[in-house]
Write a structure and sequence with these properties.
The chain has 339 residues and is an alpha+beta fold. Helix content is 34%, strand content 24%. Helix 4 crosses helix 5 and helix 6 runs antiparallel to helix 9.
Length: 339
């Protein structure tokens, strides 16, 4: 396990996988590395459940930060193919965060939930010594729906096509250029273009469109480890090989310039809002059309084959060792604090 970022498969298998509490027959999908959510069965609908950290980033605007944090949490359950319906939150706030600042942040959480039809069902909010921004708690998202409608991130089958929306480093480009604009050597127009990528980090609406469109076998939000990490997680969890052509993957304006200026590998940098979807070959056009109608760029980037691992641009690759955006963030933060 690295010093920062998500645990790797080896850590999960050694320390987590054999210690999952009491066995219960109603858990249809429990914790698995590379799978975003779990599933609990009932006598009727199933519950898809996912938990993720929540952040408060005042530098991007508090209301906007509330929407951003909510989008990240809801995405992990939206990739189940079921629409998020409920949210539980827990905040451990730093004592110095003012009431009105939290209220502005919370207005963003509320607004995003209202827009998506998500009800906030419970929570815990407190101030504690030792807590600090940006990581201030977590959210648990729930989706209630038909068990036959669920698609799992580990469901890819040989013969499927691999679709990718938006492309690499959308989140990290938008976030880093917004948080540290004075430290990034880009022309003003290019910088503004890169900053606009932060408004593309939501994937819930795209996931809904994908699920409604066709025979989707797997869906994953490309967060830590970036697109290359998402390909590996999906291929490894399904026991298949992904063969991917990066030339067929969308590249949003400003991303290449920002990644070059930051010295950041776009393919290994977190890109919340970008979906990787595997689809039966006969349904590719329906899924692509559904996304394009939403204005979401999408490319048919490759195919699922028998075997294992990820062949990217003709080369066999290894899973990313951490996320490429973390060391860049830490460097920029250190530089900003020393100014």
């Amino acid at each position: 396990m690295g010093e920062t970022g998500k645990i790797d498969r080896a850590f999960f298998e050694e320390y987590v996988a054999s210690r999952l509490g009491a066995p219960r027959g109603d858990i249809a999908k429990g914790p698995k590395h590379g799978v975003d959510f779990g599933v609990v069965e009932t006598d009727g609908p199933v519950l898809a459940v996912a938990t993720d950290p929540m952040s408060i980033l005042p530098a991007i605007g508090l209301e906007r930060a509330g929407r951003f944090a909510t989008q990240i949490v809801l995405a992990d359950v939206a990739v189940s193919g079921l629409a998020p319906s409920h949210l539980a939150v827990s905040f451990a706030l730093p004592p110095g965060l003012a009431d009105d600042a939290f209220a502005e942040f919370w207005s963003g959480v509320d607004a995003e939930c209202r827009d998506l039809g998500v009800g906030i069902v419970t929570g815990h909010t407190a101030r504690y010594e030792g807590c600090q921004l940006p990581w201030v708690g977590h959210g648990t998202a729930i989706a209630v729906g038909d068990p036959d409608a669920i698609c799992y991130p580990d469901g890819a089958n040989p013969g499927d096509r691999v679709l990718v929306t938006k492309g690499p480093a959308v989140e990290s480009t938008g976030l880093l250029t917004t948080l540290f604009p004075e430290q990034i050597d880009l022309p003003d127009g290019t910088l503004a273009t890169a900053q606009r990528r932060l408004d593309e980090t939501g994937s819930v609406r795209d996931a809904r469109a994908v699920a409604a469109a066709g025979d989707v076998t797997a869906m994953h939000d490309a967060t830590e480890g970036g697109l290359l990490g998402a390909f590996h997680e999906m291929a490894d969890s399904a026991g298949v090989q992904f063969t991917v052509d990066p030339a067929e993957i969308p590249l949003r304006p400003g991303v290449a310039d920002a990644c070059e200026a930051l010295g950041m590998d776009p393919w290994r940098a977190t890109t919340a809002g970008t979906l990787v979807v595997t689809v039966d070959a006969d349904h590719v056009e329906k899924v692509r059309t559904a996304l394009e109608k939403r204005g979401t760029p999408v490319g048919v980037a490759g195919r699922v084959e028998s075997g294992s691992g990820v062949v990217f641009d003709g080369e066999r690759t290894s899973p990313p060792d951490g996320d490429a955006s973390w060391p860049v963030y830490e460097r920029l933060l250190d530089e900003s604090e020393s100014r």
